[in-house]
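hey
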């Protein structure tokens, strides 16, 4: 997340609303403090001036599409985002754009569920685990509640699981593009 210089109207909505107090005002502009930010995206939602933005990767994706096999991974929410377009039409449009394959991240969720079940089975009677596909929740735990890190189920998110599977299956030269609404997933993918 970053602030578009000059658009910030010093209303302090993002400063007040940030759940982890990761925004400070510098020279009249609200700026995100990266080491405190959990990438939840709430600051973008509350900014009436549209002064907060997420890194855009359109040019990077265009470069992927022209330089080799590129695979699209669709978040399950794509059905709602593109309504009333049918799922098959979304897949067809992505293939027309140049994606070699299109996969639903729900497949990654199946893989993660199996891993999580195995972990819980091996944990036996131990209780109090935190299991989530949400990288913002994992960020909150690791940055603000490190004593709870042992409670996190050590399984990657569905997006990462699917990406790793596709890389292993098709080779590291394939480019994987996640398409979904989650801002925290961008940070997770970069890690």
């Amino acid at each position: 997340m970053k602030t578009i210089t000059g658009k910030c109207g010093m209303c302090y909505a993002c400063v007040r609303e940030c759940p982890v107090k990761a925004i400070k005002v510098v020279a009249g502009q609200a700026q995100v403090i990266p080491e405190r930010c959990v990438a939840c995206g709430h600051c973008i939602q509350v900014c009436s001036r549209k002064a907060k933005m997420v890194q855009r990767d359109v040019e990077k994706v265009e470069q992927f599409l022209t330089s080799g096999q590129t695979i699209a991974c669709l978040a399950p929410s794509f059905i709602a985002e593109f309504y009333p377009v049918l799922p098959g039409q979304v897949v067809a449009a992505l293939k027309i754009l140049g994606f070699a394959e299109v996969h639903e991240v729900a497949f990654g969720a199946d893989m993660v569920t199996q891993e999580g079940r195995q972990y819980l089975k091996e944990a036996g009677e131990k209780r109090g685990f935190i299991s989530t596909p949400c990288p913002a929740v994992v960020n909150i735990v690791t940055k603000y509640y490190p004593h709870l890190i042992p409670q996190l189920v050590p399984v990657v998110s569905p997006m990462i699981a699917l990406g790793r599977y596709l890389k292993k299956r098709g080779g590291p030269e394939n480019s994987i593009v996640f398409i979904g609404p989650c801002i925290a997933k961008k940070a997770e993918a970069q890690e």
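The chain has a mean pLDDT of 92. The chain is about 45% helix and 15% strand.
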